[in-house]
Inverse folding.
C-alpha cells in the first residue's frame, strides 16, 4: 500500500511524507517494497538502493529474531523528505530489540578463511546511512534512519 | 522474474550469470549451485554481475561461500560486471580486499586463462 500526502504539521514545514507502506512480515515481499521506495524518490536512485538494502537487512532481522518468522505481522515503513535529509522509519510490533547494540561487528579485515557473515547487515546500515537508531515504544520497535541529501 | 541465473562452461571456465534481485527471498534458489562449485581442484569460475540489479547480505553470504570453496580446492574465482552500487556494497563489506574482480567479462576470462 502506498499513499503520498503533503506536509504534515507534526513533521515541520519542509518535511514531506513520501511513503507510508505496510508489508506483511514475509521476506518475499521485499521486492514489492523496493519498487515503492524507488517510486517515492525517483530522482535519488542510488539512495533508493541503499534504503532498500538497509530496510531488507533490518526487517529480515525483525522477522527472524523479533517475530520468530511469524508471517502474519504488519511492518510499517515511512519515508519522509526535507531539502537536506531523507528520513526512513520502520515500525514493528515485536518484543524490544535493538540491532545496533546487540549484533557483533563483522571483521571486515579478515581473510577469506576467517571471514564470517554475522553482523554484516547492521554494518551495511551503519555505513550507508548517516544516522541510525532504534527505540521501543511499549508496543513495538521504531528504527529511524537518516541520510543527508547533498544540495 | 525477480531473480534467475545461468551456469555454462566455456573453455574450461564456469560462467555463472546472475540476473535481477538477489535478496533474502531469492538467494535460496542459488544456494545449491554455489555449493556445487569448485568440486574439483583448480576449478575456475567467473561470476557475471552485469545483469544483477541488487544484492543483500543473503547473496553476499553465498558469494563468500564460493570464495571459500575456491581457496579450499586451489581454484580461482573472479567477479565481473559489478555495477557501481553493487560494487559499493562489496567494498563496504570488505569483500573487495579478499576477492578478485574484473570490470568486464572479457577481462575476467583473460585473467582466468593466465
Amino acid at each position: 500500500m502506498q499513499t503520498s500526502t503533503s506536509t504534515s504539521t507534526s513533521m515541520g514545514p519542509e518535511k514531506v511524507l513520501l511513503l507510508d507502506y505496510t508489508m506483511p512480515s514475509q521476506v518475499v515481499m521485499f521486492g514489492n517494497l523496493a519498487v515503492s521506495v524507488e517510486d517515492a524518490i525517483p530522482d535519488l536512485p542510488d539512495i533508493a538502493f541503499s534504503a532498500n538494502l538497509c530496510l531488507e537487512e533490518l526487517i529480515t532481522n525483525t522477522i527472524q529474531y523479533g517475530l520468530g518468522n511469524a508471517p502474519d505481522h504488519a511492518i510499517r515503513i515511512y519515508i519522509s523528505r526535507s531539502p537536506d535529509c531523507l528520513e526512513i522509519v520502520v515500525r514493528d510490533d515485536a518484543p524490544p530489540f535493538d540491532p545496533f547494540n546487540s549484533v557483533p561487528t563483522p571483521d571486515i579485515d579478515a581473510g577469506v578463511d576467517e571471514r564470517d557473515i554475522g553482523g554484516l547487515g547492521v554494518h551495511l546500515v551503519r555505513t550507508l546511512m548517516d544516522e541510525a537508531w532504534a527505540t521501543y515504544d511499549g508496543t513495538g520497535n521504531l528504527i529511524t534512519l537518516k541520510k543527508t541529501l547533498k544540495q | 522474474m525477480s531473480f534467475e541465473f545461468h551456469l555454462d562452461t566455456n573453455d574450461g571456465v564456469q560462467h555463472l550469470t546472475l540476473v535481477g534481485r538477489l535478496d533474502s527471498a531469492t538467494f535460496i534458489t542459488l544456494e545449491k549451485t554455489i555449493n556445487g562449485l569448485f568440486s574439483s581442484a583448480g576449478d575456475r569460475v567467473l561470476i557475471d554481475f552485469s545483469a544483477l540489479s541488487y544484492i543483500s547480505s543473503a547473496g553476499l553470504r553465498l558469494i563468500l561461500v564460493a570464495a571459500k570453496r575456491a581457496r579450499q580446492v586451489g581454484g580461482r574465482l573472479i567477479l565481473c560486471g559489478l555495477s557501481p552500487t553493487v560494487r559499493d556494497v562489496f567494498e563496504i563489506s570488505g569483500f573487495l580486499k579478499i576477492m578478485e574482480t574484473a570490470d568486464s567479462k572479457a577481462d575476467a576470462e583473460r585473467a582466468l586463462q593466465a
Observations:
- The longest strand of chain B covers residues 44-55.
- The two ends of chain B are 36 Å apart (CA to CA).
- Chain B touches chain A at residues 2, 21, 23-25, 54, 56-58, 60-61, 64, 67-68, 71, 84-85, 89, 92-94, 97-99 (CB under 8 Å).
- Chain B is about 40% helix and 35% strand.
